[in-house]
Amino acid sequence: MMKKATSIELFTGAGGLALGLEASRWKHLALVERNRDACETLALNQRCEQPLAKDWRILSDDVRNIRYERITRRRVDMVAGGPPCQPFSLGGKHRAYNDHRDMFSEAVRAVRELRPKCFLFENVKGLLRQSFSTYFNYIVLQLEHPMIARAGNEDWTSHLARLEKQHTSGKDEDLQYRVIWRLLNAADFGVPQHRHRVFIVGFREDLGKEWAFPTPTHSFDRLLWDLWVDGSYWDEHKVAKKFRPQVSPRHRSRVEALRSDFFLQPPPGARYVTVRDALHDLPDPRRRPNKAWNHEFRDGARPYPGHTGSVLDEPSKALKAGDHGVPGGENMMAFGDGSYRYYSIREAARIQTFPDDYRFSGAWSEAMRQLGNAVPVKLANVVGESIRAQMRAR
């Protein structure tokens, strides 16, 4: 059996990235998370001996207090993590570098001190907002040149200028990384949710690695084909013709184009995974009893403009965390009869591709906050597998 590569993960949250990387044969030497509720979820799964989480070493601490030489003397192949996204979130206050929760400097410090062969950091797509473009460039340059550290009284723009000079100088450095980034939609990789995350990946310069992000495996066109051209989706779910909804006006022109294809060949690849696909074998949480973990019904779901829930036969809208629990009108399903219902915790976990034996600690709103902040496990697995394959390549 091939030996696992080692990693240290920062800002672990409820464990979505950690689970995906563990499944792709990365051995976590430590997971760092300071939020008490998220740590309770991690510890709960460790105690319950969830197969991927049972051997985790959880450090419940602020990453700024971590001294890496005290964690391990072993070689660390990768540093991973998702620095807090609220400074850049489209739904947040957009303070970026003026937000005390901006922890990218700590991600850079971990790279500088641990000197891993590679790193993987992810964040929300708001990081790519035009108004943050200079600061995003600053983040990437820090990761490319981690030894060019910011002085104690130096503002970030002065530090950026020093990094730019170093980057254009062509001078050899003791530690340097080849860094690329891409905005990925989780639905393109089989996650039943439109969830866009920025992934930043770097390989140590001296390794000479060549790597590209994984190619999408799923498509919306194929879903439209299975829904409205050959009807195989409805047959699979045993939905009688009289109960099948009509083509949505927003998709009608695309469906007509697919139907008019001369050869009538289905689009390549797999179809997008829908809410119905993800939840079809879970009991309705309103029915008692049910034996699924974290599958209690929560009342009070109501739509309002801009927040109309997720339809059953498309990938879910992105789950959201909110500053104070679940945002009103979000994280819910919209049924064809005009009714609405919140996702249960277990349903939200399915949407985020957590395994069914992974449990969440805390009240419904707290568990949903953890899920709303998480990386889809399957997306983390796909990217982790690809990086792991490159690390094995000679």
Main attributes of the structure:
Rossmann fold; alpha/beta; 2 domains; 13 helices; three-stranded mixed sheet
Structural class: alpha/beta
Rg for CA atoms: 22 Å
Shape call: globular
User: Main β-sheet: number of strands, strand sense, barrel status?
Assistant: 7 strands, mixed
What is the CATH fold-level name of the largest domain?
A: Rossmann fold
CATH architecture of the largest domain: 3-Layer(aba) Sandwich
- Per CATH, the class of the largest domain reads Alpha Beta
What is the helix content? 25-40%
- DSSP, total strands: 12
Number of domains: 2
Q: What are the SSEs and their pairings?
A:
Blueprint: E1 5-10, H1 16-23, E2 26-33, H2 36-47, E3 58-60, H3 68-71, E4 78-81, H4 104-114, E5 118-124, H5 133-144, H6 156-169, E6 177-185, E7 196-204, E8 218-219, H7 220-228, H8 232-236, H9 252-259, E9 270-271, H10 275-279, E10 310-311, E11 332-334, E12 340-342, H11 345-351, H12 364-373, H13 377-392
Helix pairs in contact: 1-13, 5-6, 7-9
